[in-house]
Amino acid sequence: VQVAVHIRPLIAQERIQGCKECVSVVPGEPQVQLGSHSFTFDHVYGGGGSSPSSIFDQCVRPLVEGLFQGYNATVLAYGQTGSGKTYTMGTGYTVGGSSEGVIPQVMNTLFSKINALKHKADFQVRVSFIEILKEEVHDLLDPNPPSTMKTDTANGGLLRVVPGKPPIQIRETGSGGIMLAGVTETEVRTLPEMAACLEQGSLCRATGSTNMNAQSSRSHAIFTINVEQRRKWDSFLNADTSSLPEDTGEDFLCAKLHLVDLAGSERAKRTKADGNRFKEGVHINRGLLALGNVISALGDDKKRKEGGHVPYRDSKLTRLLQDSLGGNSRTTMIACVSPADSNAEETLNTLKYANRARNIQNKPMVNRDPVVAEMQRMRQQLEVLQAELLCAQAATIPEEIQILKQKVTWLESNNLELRRELQQSAESYLVKNYLKRIQELELELLSVKSSNATDLSPEGEGDVEEEGEGEGDVDVDVVAAKELEHTMRQDCLDKELEELDKRLELKEAEMKAFARPDNVVLKQHFEKKLIELEDEKKTLQKERDALLKELEALATSSDEHAHKMQETYVQKLKDLERQIAELKKKQENQAQLLRQKQRSDEAAKRLQEDILRMKQQKASHFIVQLQNKIKQESEQFRAWKNAREKEVLQLRKEGRRNVYEMHKLQALHQRQKLVLQRKTEEAAVATRRLKDMLEASEAS
């Protein structure tokens, strides 16, 4: 089980009360510290850790992609009341509202993946939305509620049964999975249909106001997405046989994703709850206690090895999450905590709770069609039997294998003899030592020239990514729009700082590449070669001059021997002139390489100047002004948000007062109605008695 911790910022009420942050995050590590306690998790978001916007990409996106491979998944949000579980999960989603939260991003990613794969498979997506309120399972997508007992005032206040669906029952399948009998599963084909189902369930969910949270969730909510995919074979049959997929057995896969928003654990002395609110809190804490017992039993290595009892049946919540905890599912738990020191004890309990959950080991497996799974098993068994048959056939012909081995040995020996003869013939045709040395020099110059050209190739100075200032006009309420605008401003300012840092790092890397010790060694080597070539050129010129003098001396004599010597010297003179020409070409190449090296040194010098200029710019007034602007924007947004939250709290307070007055007037009206009914009945009885007395007096 992967566990992530989400630390929300201090809210306005906590700031008004003077609360301080008591939770700290170790920089660069997924480690949380609370007083003397330290906990390590898989991911930590907020409070100095990673950005909360990356929760979906790092924790939930792999689970959504696993759905298309046939793996079940669960995302579980746990924490005390008011710690931001519903905000993190996005359970309170409304169409046209903010798309923050895990569930809205899951829906977008799911349908994007379906649209990309719809040419390969047919998909069927069904959703269900339930809540567990007072240990009763309620269907949030069912327009017809189950049978209930209501008071019938027309019949003297007697109770009567209002017909409806039978209550939802928890059942176990033949394969050991958990299912809900009677729950509504709505088939959805598009993203707006799934969003409408989520909004309908969110509006029907039970919420209430406590002293710690004005909109506290009073029930555990589970939003389930079932995905079934069946491969389209038409596209493969029309294509070549080479394009057939390898996993031909995976023609039907099904998987489900549970998105669980638990109700927050709470203490009555802090929530000031009484009456129904108090009873709801008792049921919430009872379910979370049962969940904690299950996590403790699964996280204990000793009990797990001994096969100890896991109390899944102590609560309907743990019964529904039986597959998610220790079963066939990939599970991620998001522990939401408050950093305020007034909630330090509840935060510590939440961190301990999450730390125990890290020890749970699930057993996820691919959910295939049973018929296809049996065919796959039989196909594997057939391959094993074929391999055994080949081994048995190979054991019956050892003589042929021995003959083949002897042939291979004879061919290898012949190959070695032929190689030896080839090497001897190559050695007999070697050229003279002087020409060999000239060729080696030419090859060395060519290799050095190519390597220097690759080393001195410009690497592109300062390819800076263009900033994308995405300011979309989102038609949401004022608070969400203001928050989005503030976030985008902060991102733009952060991007400017990151851009300067990237450019500086790029320039420094190029400078290091130019200033490598290899280039210095190459320069010394080329200078040494130039000196050697110059000396050799001078030697050859002296030898040519000497030959010219000898030719002039021999030109005066007419001896036949002198004539032959003259022809020999002329030939030798031509060879020397050719060698001198070749040496001049090599000298020119060396000079060209030195000029390239000089240009690279000048480029390195310019890069050094750019680096110094950018460092000065980073430490200049521009950076200070940018940081001051960021701070000023943050303070203005925080003040505006606090004012808006105060106004919202005031409006909620007035709304609660109006609701209380309305209930009070309704109760007074009901009492007056009952008194009027009783007086009417008494008057009717008195009238009847008077009528009887008048009739008796008339008769007498």
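Next protein, fold it too.
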Amino acid sequence: ELKIEVVLPEKDRGKEELSAGGKGSPRAYQGKGAARHFHADERLPAPHPYPGTQDCVEAAVCHVKDLENGQMREVELGWGKVLLLKDNGEFHALGHKCPHYGAPLVKGVLSRGRVRCPWHGACFSVSSGDLEDFPGLDSLHKFQVKIEKEKVYVRASKQALQLQRRTKVMATCISPSAGHSGSTNVLIVGAGAAGLVCAETLRQEGFSDRIVLCTLDRYLPYDRPKLSKSLDTQPEQLALRPKEFFRAHGIEVLTEAQVVTVDVRNKKAVFKDGFKLEYSKLLLAPGSSPKTLNCKGKDMENVFTIRTPEDANRVVRLARGRNAVVVGAGFLGMEVAAYLTEKAHSVSVVELEETPFRRFLGERVGRALMKMFENNRVKFYMQTEVSELRAQEGKLKEVVLKSSKVVRADVCVVGIGAVPATGFLRQSGISLDSRGFIPVNKMMQTNIPGVFAAGDAVTFPLAWRNSRKVNIPHWQMAHAQGRVAAQNMLAQEAEIGTVPYLWTAMFGRSLRYAGYGEGFDDVIIQGDLDELKFVAFYTKGDEVISVASMNYDPIVSKVAEVLASGRTIRKREVETGDMSWLTGKGF
């Protein structure tokens, strides 16, 4: 039997405090050969959260009667702020900012023993600070609270107050490879959110065998959604974890490594360069490949799909002071168009539908957003397609539309959707549906034992929509699926149950969305669309199935929390404009 070891780099020791989720998991995991048992008494060691009184600060922050159940407030400790809250009669003190993008959690939602971020929906346990739902990778610090003479005191380490994030304690690998050994316990194909969270979850749960993460990218896992929102961001600014993190926790990353076939009978993956790697457990998280135009001139220079930091950086460079055309008015296309308005001489958007986002957000919301773009000098060519791209001296000069209009273009960005990157699995015996997606069950298992799949390339049963099989290519959903896959590699019988949550940012305004709205038959709008301060409820029959908002925080997080609780929201509840049902305690 093997002991779990933890090796923390010196500079990380202060921020890795012991949490409920950071203990050795009392599970048996069948590796290659013998079972590895992690007993409950084999706890992961961790530095004491309060190493000395000189490193801590303690203060009375309020009277016990200042907070009622379900209330939150930020309190100042001198070295930083803390989120103080009262839940079920108990006071708790946590980090006050969401580790994902720094949202003030005091503006979020406290419900069912957790705090949900107002911006992107991440959830944290009030009792431990642990991350319970995504996006993001890190948890919150949990601080000591005591009551003396009707006053509430909070004690916190100064370092924790300044860090505002806590990386869970992880096992380290006790069987590292010598060079590129030909076998691994866990192979993860794809290093996006699903792949990275899977690897981290395995280590958090005490798994200490070899993990290999392979990616087509040149870079370690990075924040891909940022590419289209901030096109000139450099690769190092996008990194989700530094190189030292992977080294410290024994997660091997193979960059520019393409798996070309998977042999499920012999549990072996074959790479493009001929390298073969045996595995015991496999996660497939290959993501998707962008669709390209199918017209004359589609392969010429200066025509891009935004897939890598280099793509995004080159688009900005070529568009500066020149004419940019974006094909596709979905999320990626509209984010790119919004970003380029301050850089390019002109920005034009070509779209087959009548309004942007029409299938996702409906006609009225789409039109309101279109008006915002037009007010920012974006020209729309709707209900048409590209018929030809014309060059001058080998470089793009014009985009010809089927409506016979000709649009000047020095750079063209194509954002017309994506297809699952699963071609390498066609002969593998792993099931693919007619569109190339990998069907999985609620435990993220494929039809082959020991083979799991997660992220943009899967269809899975959506629990709160009667387990309807859906594909949801959202960043947050990929995180959640990666964790569930890891838990089930360790035989924990976890099920995917998260409520989908996504966001977009354009012209300094954020739109948030929760639920699954495909097939909506009505949209109930409260607020003012013209002022872009609204909430839109998407209904099917008598039921609210999704919600979108701008400048109406934290309503999307509140609705997500209601849906996560299992409660059905009826159409009549949102038609009246009375939102009191959303503010009730313990929904």
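About the second fold: The chain has a mean pLDDT of 89.
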